[in-house]
Amino acid sequence: MLILISDAFDKSLPEKLSVFGEVTTDTSRLSEADVVLIRSKTKATKEYIDEAKNMKLIIRGGVGMDNIDREYCKEKGIVATNTPKSSAIAVAELAFALMISVPNHIVYYDNTMKDGEWNKKTKRTELYGKTLALLGIGNIATKVAERAKAFGMRVVAYDKYVSSSPVAEMMGLEEAVREADYISMHLPYTPETDKIIGKDLISKMEKKPVIINTGRGKCVDEYAMVEALENGSVSWFCTDVYSSEPPEVDSNPLFKAKNVTFTPHVGANTNENLLRIGQEVCQTIEKYQKEGLIK
Q1: Residue 30 near residue 51, CB atoms below 8 Å
Q2: Can you name the residues that pair with 159 across neighbouring β-strands?
């Protein structure tokens, strides 16, 4: 078995995978590989899949799989899967860090202190007693909900495919955003969720919420978001993800807007998470080896 590590994983992974067969990071050997490991950088398009003539299993280290043409994989008899549990803590902590930074004016205080100002007039607000709406209630959102409850927040959630949750009060999409002081996005990107945060849904938001997106950039209409920030319908937008990555600073409207906090798609980039991803990758390969998919 040849395992190709196409993107950046923990440095210990090649040795761990060596028990299964040969391991390489040489992407020119794609056509030979039985198993291919990718993260967000590699795009497993039809052309990529056709080049991987021997591929039987492709594993996305992380949650989102919109960079894999899964339908084409299915046509070709290739199993496409991910590591859904590994990244939950890492992404949840970033989402919560972004959320807590806004009412505490962390970026503003830091910048003004460095400019020699001692600004005690700008008052902080608390998360305690506020309502957090989660869009999507999977592994990551559940971890965010647990942290929000520890801060004394009320947690509501919308998920078309989930009817109940032990950590959130489930409700419809419009009702959830109408109730929200804060909105944290954890939806996969699909045709159904494309630009789901757009002009229409923003018009239903009554509390001028802070919106945090650590899910997928294309779930937000970036132009509608800029308009909402300008007219005050949304008070702040924090994002780790973008409609194209890396974003074009000159053409992406968000970079000209006020009240935006940016991070460079680092939600899953913790040392601990990379180790967990590696462990889940090994478990996945072992599973499919036992089932006879790969030898």
Answers
A1: yes
A2: none
